[in-house]
TrEMBL record:
Record-stated family: Belongs to the 6-phosphogluconate dehydrogenase family.
Catalysed reactions, as listed in the record: 6-phospho-D-gluconate + NADP(+) = D-ribulose 5-phosphate + CO2 + NADPH
Species the sequence originates in: Nonomuraea wenchangensis
Alphabetized InterPro entries for the sequence: 6-PGluconate_DH-like_C_sf, 6PGD_dom2, 6PGDH_C, 6PGDH_Gnd/GntZ, 6PGDH_NADP-bd, 6PGdom_BS, NAD(P)-bd_dom_sf, Pgluconate_DH
UniProt key word NADP: yes
Catalytic residues of the enzyme: 183 (proton acceptor), 190 (proton donor)
Protein name per the record: 6-phosphogluconate dehydrogenase, decarboxylating
Annotated 6-phosphogluconate dehydrogenase C-terminal domain residues: 179-466
Residues the entry annotates as binding NADP(+): 10-15, 33-35, 75-77, 103
UniProt xrefs under Pfam families: 6PGD, NAD_binding_2
Alphabetic keyword roster: Gluconate utilization, NADP, Oxidoreductase, Pentose shunt
EC numbers: 1.1.1.44
Quaternary structure, from the entry: Homodimer.
SMART domains hit by this protein: 6PGD
Length: 474
């Protein structure tokens, strides 16, 4: 029997499509699924696309792989992942590679990588973005793990990934959990992008009284400029959709409670630990949470709100476009800050420009905009914040009047825009010469003797607030 180049275990939609993508690129693919009928179905339906080597059990699957073995796990992230890893690892030999292509938490990936490394196995936590279609036609792929495993896996993963201008949307992100961390931040940014789009839709619809299908045209138009991206493109399609049963706009028949599998929440949790203000992602995550409390919403439905009238519609569409672009710049700047902070914390040496490069195609947040981020890091790999890049600084300067008008209008007519508002507050906070954090420090020193530093000399100080109010070195 000819041995397979690589294997996929877990053949739900993502796993099946990834296996097909590999086979279509000429790799012999070992395939396995806990329920064997799914494996049989894959071979029956798509066997003509390439070489599949099916196995009924994991022992057969491992035995069907060339050495060193390369096995990709595509199972739902969670406790089940540990069980599959344990079973696979027991059948493998030093030098073999286990790739986890699910949305695992990076801390789990770090733990698993360390445990398998002790046994001489490579564990490669790999972010894969692009949904079902991406898995089949070319996703954005973010592998972590050892440099040695990258040598054996990199060419295959780059081969099956999306390409933009001939450049694969896949690089070795960094060691251990770096790949899953970067995928997590990708998802956090995805939350933020979607929240900003939703706010744009909501504000325009409420303020101007236009229909979703009219707004589809607005988004389609926006997609031709700075905002050109997959999410703007599909927003137009979703807004245009009409429910066949009722004839109503599709968005009006969908329950307005946004769900999540958790990667956005993880991004915010990690950002809190790293001390990085990812306010855009946090507001997006909390907006989903707010939407998911129907009992509170019903109880609050009769609370007083402002009069909706008096909006000047002429400028609003362009203002919202500018606010969306500016807020998006902030959200990405924050996400990239978080990756930089994690890189320092875990010693990953992440190349931020390369992260922008591999998100240009294949993934959910793919956008023209990422070319500009890449250019910013090419020009200065140590950029302290993307907001300081001359191109983005210029775009923010051009957008800020519109952005302020949008937030003001939203506040005045009572349409919640936490994404726009918090992004603007972040922008204003970061550009301030002096922040009221000095007062916070003073208060901390007053009630807790927490000390403070001075602007004019080194050291920590404390005022004897309850005594003579004289300052002493702490
Ligand atoms: C991707 C997506 C994918 C998934 C999200 C959805 O990059 O292909 O991000 O990973 O669609 O996990 O996340 P929520 O269910 O949390 O919205």
């Amino acid at each position: 029997m000819d041995l397979a180049d690589i294997g996929v275990t877990g053949l739900a939609t993502m796993g099946r499509n990834l296996a097909r993508n590999l086979a279509r690129h000429g790799y012999a693919v070992a395939v396995h699924n806990r329920t064997h009928s799914r494996t049989q179905q894959l071979v029956k339906e798509f066997g003509g696309e390439g070489t599949f080597v099916p196995s009924e059990d994991l022992a057969g699957f491992v035995a069907s792989l060339k050495r060193p073995r390369r096995a990709i796990i595509m199972v739902k992230a969670g406790a089940g992942t540990d069980a599959v890893i344990d079973q696979l690892a027991a059948l493998m030999e030093p030098g073999d590679m286990i790739v986890d292509g699910g949305n695992a938490h990076y801390a789990d990936t770090r733990r698993r990588e360390a445990a398998l490394r002790e046994r001489g196995l490579h564990f490669v936590g790999t972010g894969i973005s692009g949904g079902e279609e991406g898995a089949l036609l070319g996703p954005s792929i973010m592998p972590g793990g050892s440099a040695e495993s990258w040598e054996a896996l990199g060419p295959i993963l780059q081969d099956i990934s999306a390409k933009v201008d001939g450049v694969p949307c896949c690089v070795h992100v960094g060691p251990d959990g770096a790949g899953h961390f970067v995928k997590m931040v990708h998802n956090g940014i995805e939350y933020s992008d979607m929240q900003l789009i939703a706010e744009s839709y909501d504000l325009l619809r409420q303020a101007l009284g236009v229909t979703p299908s009219e707004l589809a045209g607005v988004f389609r138009e926006w997609n031709k400029g700075d905002l050109d991206s997959y999410l703007i493109e599909i927003t137009a399609e979703v807004l245009e959709q009409v429910d066949a049963e009722t004839g109503r706009p599709f968005v009006d028949i969908v329950v307005d409670q946004a769900e999540q599998k958790g990667t956005g929440r993880w991004t915010v949790q990690s950002a809190l630990d790293l001390g990085v203000p990812v306010t855009g992602i946090a507001e997006a995550t909390f907006a989903r949470a707010l939407s998911g409390h129907p009992e509170q919403r019903a109880a609050a439905a009769s609370l007083a709100g402002p009069d909706l009238s008096g909006v000047d519609g002429r400028e609003l569409v362009e203002d919202v476009r500018q606010a969306l672009y500016a807020s998006k710049i902030v959200a990405y700047a924050q996400g990239f800050d978080q990756m930089a902070a994690a890189s320092r914390e875990y010693g990953w040496d992440l190349d931020l420009g390369a992260m922008a490069t591999i998100w240009r195609g294949g993934c959910i947040i793919r956008a023209k905009f990422l070319d500009r981020i890449r250019a910013a890091y090419d020009a200065d790999p140590h950029l302290p914040t993307l907001l300081a890049d001359p191109t983005f600084a210029g775009a923010l300067a051009a957008a800020q009047e519109s952005w302020r008008r949008v937030v003001t209008t939203a506040v005045r007519i009572g349409v919640p825009t936490p994404g726009f508002s918090s992004a603007l507050a972040y922008y204003d906070g970061l550009r301030r010469d002096r922040l009221p954090a000095s007062l916070v420090q003073g208060l901390r020193d007053y009630f807790g003797a927490h000390t403070y530093r001075r602007v004019d000399k080194e050291g920590a100080f404390h005022v004897d607030w309850s005594g003579d109010r004289a300052e002493r070195p702490a």
